[in-house]
Structures are given as C-alpha cells and as structure tokens.
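We modelled each protein-ligand pair independently. The example shown here corresponds to the flavin-adenine dinucleotide entry; the chain sequence is given first, followed by the ligand as SMILES.
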Amino acid sequence: MQSHARVVVIGGGMMGTGLLYHLAEQGWSDCLLIEKGELTSGSTWHAAGQCPSFIADYSMAKIHHYGNTLYPKLEQLTGQNVSWHGCGGIRFALNEAELEWFRHVEGISKLIGFEMHILGPHEIRQHNPHVDISGVVAGALTIGDGHVDPAGCCNALAKGARKFGAKIERFTRVEDIQAAANGEWDVVTDKGTVRCEHVVNAAGCYARRISQMVGTDVPISNREHHYLVTEPIREFIDSDIEMPVMRDPSASAYFRQEQNSALIGLYETHTGVEAWADRGGSPDWESDSELFEPDMDRILPHVEKVLQRMPIWADAGIRRIVNGAIPHTPDANPLLGPAMGVRNFWQCCGSSIGIAQGAGCGKYLAQWMIDGDAEINMAGLDPRRFCGINDDDWVRAKSFQDYTHMYKLHLPGEERDAGRGVRKSTLYEKLKDKGAVFTEAASWERPKWFSLDGRAEEAGFGRTNVHDVVAAECMAVRDRVGVTDLSSFAKFDVTGADAEAFLNRITANRLARKPGGIILTHWLGDNGMIHGEATISRLAEGHYYVLSGAAAQHRDLDHLRQPIRPREDVRVEDITDDWGTLVVAGPRSRDTLAKITAVDLTSDNFRWLSAQVIEIAGIELRALRVNYVGELGWELHVAMPHMPALYDAVWAAGEEFAIADAGTYAVNSLRLEKAYKGWGAEMTNEITMIEADMERFVKYDKDDFIGKAATLKRKQERVSMRLVYCRLDARDHDAHGGEAVLRDGKVIGITTSGGWGHYTKTSLAFAYVAPEFSTPGSEFDIEILGSAIKAVVLDEPVHDPHNARLRA
Ligand SMILES: Cc1cc2nc3c(=O)[nH]c(=O)nc-3n(C[C@H](O)[C@H](O)[C@H](O)COP(=O)(O)OP(=O)(O)OC[C@H]3O[C@@H](n4cnc5c(N)ncnc54)[C@H](O)[C@@H]3O)c2cc1C
C-alpha cells in the first residue's frame, strides 16, 4: 500500500466515494480511500435507493438536486451501470398544514430548479391508478427524481474517482490515526501506515469510533430500518410505465415499483430500535454487509396501511425483507465539515438518506476542503453545530425522534420534546414558573415567549395565537423595560500581551482602542466569505471579551484558537457555560438599573457601545451597553450562579416601570425593525461583506487581516447579488426565510429571514436579490406559501433609523 497521500478517506460507502469522486474531479487526485471490506459493504449495499428532491431545507435541497442531476448521467461518465429510474415521486398531504408546507417547498423548487407540481387527489391517480387516495388532500409531484441502484452508484463514483487519479484500497482496516510531528496525520491500517495532510471520516455507522481515534466524537446513533420486496405484481408486468415513488405520512412509509414487484419501506413511529443495541449501539469491526433479523410485529401496522393504499398488493407474497442499519444525527442533517479543535480532520458522515445525498455532500465538502468554502450555506451541516454535545442518551433520544418523524411535518414554532433540557441557565426554573415557553438553540433552553394566561401555542405557518402575546412583550421593550435571558451566547475570554494584534489580524473590524470600547466584527475566510460574527469588548489592556451566537460556539473556538502563532502570547478560554446573560432594554432600563447600582449610567459615564465591570445589586458583572433589540439597554454578563439574584433585583427595581419578560420571538421582531442581520441567515459562507452590505465593518486601512485581499478584490468586481431589507404587504403570513423572490414571475432572489415587526406594525424581510433590484424603492414579489406578496426595498430601518434611542 502507498505510504503517502494528500487525503485519506476512511469508508467506501456512498458518502466516502461521493467525496473521493469530487475531490479527484476538482483536481485533488492524490487521494486514497480505505475500506475495510468490499465497497458498499456498510449501509450502502442494502439501501432502497430512493433519491427524493422534495426537501424543505434550502442547502439540503441543493445537495439532493445535485445528486438527481448527476446520477442519470453517471453511467455515461464512468461506464458503470447505476440503474437510474427517473420515475419521479409523489408525497401525500393529509391536511391543510401539509398542503401549506407543499407550497413553501414549491417555492424552494423554483429557487433550486427542480420541477414540482401540487396535484389534487384525483390527479394523483393519473400517475398511480392503483392508489387509494382516502384522506389525501394533495400530492407533491416531483419530476426528474427517482431511484438508483445504490451499489452500482457507489461503484460508479469509485470508478469515476479512479479515472481522475484517486486510489482505493479495499479489505484494509484503519486501526488508528495519529498526529505526526510535522502536523500531518499517520493513518495506521492492518496493511501499513499512510502519512497524509487530511483525513476524512466517512465511516457510516462506525463514524463515532473513527472520530474517537483523534479524541473527538460525533453525535450519531445507528437505527434499524426495514423494507420488503414482494413477488411480481400482475398489473406491473402488464404495464410499461413505472409508477412514481409514493411517500405517505399516514403509513410513515414509502412504496414503489421494484422492477415488477412492490417495494415497501417503513419508518416505525413508535417501536423503531437502535441497531446493535445489544452491542452498545456500535458495530464490531468484523461486521460486514450485515443485516438484522426482520421484526414483522414492528413493521406490520405500517405495512397494513400501505396495503390499504395499494389494494393490488394485498395478496402478494413477500420475496425479501431487508433490515439494515442507518446512521442518524440529532437534527436529521449529515455532518459535513471540520471536527472542532482537530486540524485537517473532516467529517463526512451521519447521512440517513445517504444514497440521495452522497454525491451532493461529496461535491460541497470537496469545495470546502479545496477552496476553503462551499458555494452553499454549510452552517446547518457543519459538525461543530452541536457544540460538542455527544451524551449517549441525548444522541439516542434525538436521533430516534428524527427516525420516527421521517414523514412528520414540523410546523414553525412547534417544539420537539426528545433530548431537551441539556443546557439551561440558572434562571430556567424561575422563568418556567413564570410561564416561559422554551425553544432550543445549540441544546440550550431559551425562553421563546411567556404564557401569562396558560395558553399553549398553536404552531403554524401563519400568525398564531401567540401573536398578541409577543406583541405585548415587544411593546414592553419599546415603551418601558423588558428583561430577557440570553445566556446561550457563546462567550470567550481572550487574554495576553498579543491579544489585540491577534484579534485585529483575524477579524475585519478594528478593535476598540479605548478601554471599555465595543465593536462588531467578522471572521472572514481567506476568500473573503463570511465565516462568523462577534461582538468584542475591550475589558482591560490585554483582556477581550468575545461574544457570538449559540450555535457558533465551536466554530468560533476554532476561529480563535487555530490562527494563534507559536510564539504569540494569546490565551482563549471558553466560558460559555459558566456565564449567563441578562438583557435589560427599553427606555426605562436606565431608571431600573440606576435603582440597584451606584454606578452613573448616564451617557457621560457609560456611553453606547461601551463595557464596564460594575456592581449591580451587589453582584460584580460585565455590563455592556449594547443589545440586539435596538433600545437603550444593557447586556449584563454574570457568573451563572448569580443569575437568579440578579434577575430578582432587576425585576423588583423594574416593577415601578411595569417591567416585563420578553422571549426570543420578541427579540426577532425587534431586531428586524432595526434591520439587524443574523449570522447563518443573512451572513453566510456564500457571500462576502460586500454582498451583505456590511462594508462599514471592514477596516481596509488596517494591516493585513484574514480575508482582506479577497474582500478588496470583490469590491472591484460586479457582484451577482445584494442583501436588501424590505417591507411586505403581508396580511396574515409573514416571511420566514427561504422564500423565492420573483419579478414578473422570474426568480431574482431568496429571502434569508423575516417576520412581523410588532411595534411598527410592519411585515419585514431580508433577501438576497440581483443587484439591479437592490436600490431602495425597488419592488418585487415574495412568494409566501404559494401567494405572491408585494415587497419594496427600504433604505433604512423602520425603527429608530439614526440610533437616537440607543444613544439616549
Ligand atoms: C434498509 C435501508 C434502506 C435505505 N434506503 C435508502 C434510500 O432509499 N435512499 C437513501 O438515500 N438512503 C437509504 N438508506 C440509507 C443509506 O443506506 C445510508 O444513508 C448510506 O448508505 C450511508 O452511507 P455511508 O457512506 O455514510 O455509510 P456506509 O455505506 O456504511 O459506508 C461506511 C463504510 O466505512 C467502512 N469503514 C468503517 N470503519 C472502517 C475502518 N476502520 N476502516 C476502513 N473502513 C471502514 C465500512 O466498512 C463501510 O463500508 C437506507 C438504509 C437502509 C438500512
């Protein structure tokens, strides 16, 4: 076996070969894939091969669409048969909410370019005359997707990769991975050791074990999954038209034609089990092309429902039952990207629909590895989004829920109950007692809104029964004073004699020169793309307090730790879980806090965008005069144990001003009114500060900083899109993000986030549009759940455009 390679990919399933193909195709041919058995011998060989394009997540839909365009031509490209069947698919909607969701996905189909039509129940029978449409409200017909032979497809990708120069070693097991002294990796196998620059973990159900070899982990749980194939069906033998792949939420099942037989796959909703549960949920290294005993009791209720849908199958004999293992992650998305804290170790695993996703995941991960970025937003795929939460019970609970909910629609605002309560601020119980309804962010429980009359949210796409409650929270913040627990912020202390020069080198803005100064700044890639956003306060000489979004905690730790040079005096401490954050904002916030501190809070002593270490209610804390809701206010950062006492003191002081609790629903509405952008939505790795209209935060006159040259270059170029802030004529459905922006029926952009501004009574959204539609006053339509809503580009925030209230 060769002793050196640029990249070693571990695992020869769809994910590993999908990556190998694209690395080699994009020019990195010095890649070696190592597979312990035959290619496909993990989960891939026994998969049913469906490749749906109906996906609501924008980045994932792009990944699926790419596969559905590559697979039909893969045989021609590689000479290996893949048995592509472009029979299309139909998914059933069983209620109005699902139909609304279809309309949303139809908008995504326009953005991405896959063909989708919403069918009435009787039109469904034109595509599948055998199906019983009882209880079906509509069908989502996707044209151009279908199914493929998984083993053929995987082998075709491998063959293509070899043609581009990549190498594959089969029947070779990776036994260890060691960091070499020169910063490279030694991949130790039973046939020798390979030295390489990059290692990729594409080990499917073994991905945790491979990760653990380098001292990290991935949140993956392997689930058993069944499908069965019947004896040939007379009606199929007599027809030359293949029926589309059907997906039925009432049966939690997919079913299709497999040559002249029926294939029925089931996602059990109550009794699904973990694969290899008796072996601690992990396969032995010897496991090879392994299947489990079928469990008919488990799947029978679902099979019966499918047979009611397809009465022509009722008497067909069963020819084969497959029960195999699939890796699942807590949030259904695969893990694609770097492992936190481990340089040049990449994850390419956790895909539960890996046949459909293998090519697209490979394409975009290859871009990230080669170019430093993928062309799609990778925030929802980056393995670091879980912030290192890997507890076995949590992973099992979440991934089991993901499995059982495969065909369940999740409405905006709906909370999922599995694996909750992992990260809580010390205020959790107190706020719960006051009616807080929590939502999750990077496993933190964050108050979303406060149910003061005991009502529960009726989740949905439109404005819900908590609309007025959130309005009241917003009014309290704008007119009086509101208090919000935002302890989920990622928080870092950066210290050392070189801290200032270091932070100036790795971010685009210039650090505050005066003690106490606060700046907003961005991490850029070498290519200028936006990799993160942080608020940095200069607490003292050589001491900076860095804050960023909850889900960015581990990404930003990498941003902070990896560029430190050998002799640089810089230390980075992650204090996220040790410190809490209480936001006190509103015109009476100063009056409130003045009652419980001796510190002068007027602008003469405590100006906007400054930080001080002070005492409030006898508790020492970091007070930052900054907030995300656009009012006079302070973020109070305090050691977690002090949060309850601080909250009580603030509440007691604020009662005279009718203080109110506010949750993240209110925060979102308030930040939209101020046109504050969010990382992961408005600011992503797909764009630079130029497209994001954030150039005022780039200090070109600074000495070199990461991304400077590329941003300057982009400034000279004509950009293909620009971020705009707009007002919508929405009546009862606001934008959420991911909606198509249309002009004269033609797609000209996409929304990134949106919602209702309760104080200004305005429906608002951010969108990326073609530059010619970005000037203030430009008009276009935003397609919300199938309706074209008029929108106009604004030139300034709808609330306090000149920051008078912030400076008050
Ligand atoms: C019954 C069933 C039906 C399915 N149907 C579909 C479907 O219709 N559509 C769809 O998209 N998906 C389907 N799936 C899911 C799909 O099979 C998986 O998502 C996909 O195969 C995962 O691919 P992978 O490359 O990540 O993992 P794998 O295919 O498991 O590949 C990982 C490889 O890594 C190798 N490996 C592990 N450890 C080492 C080591 N130490 N050294 C060397 N090699 C190692 C393994 O041998 C294995 O070959 C189905 C799954 C099942 C069980």
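The chain has a mean pLDDT of 97.
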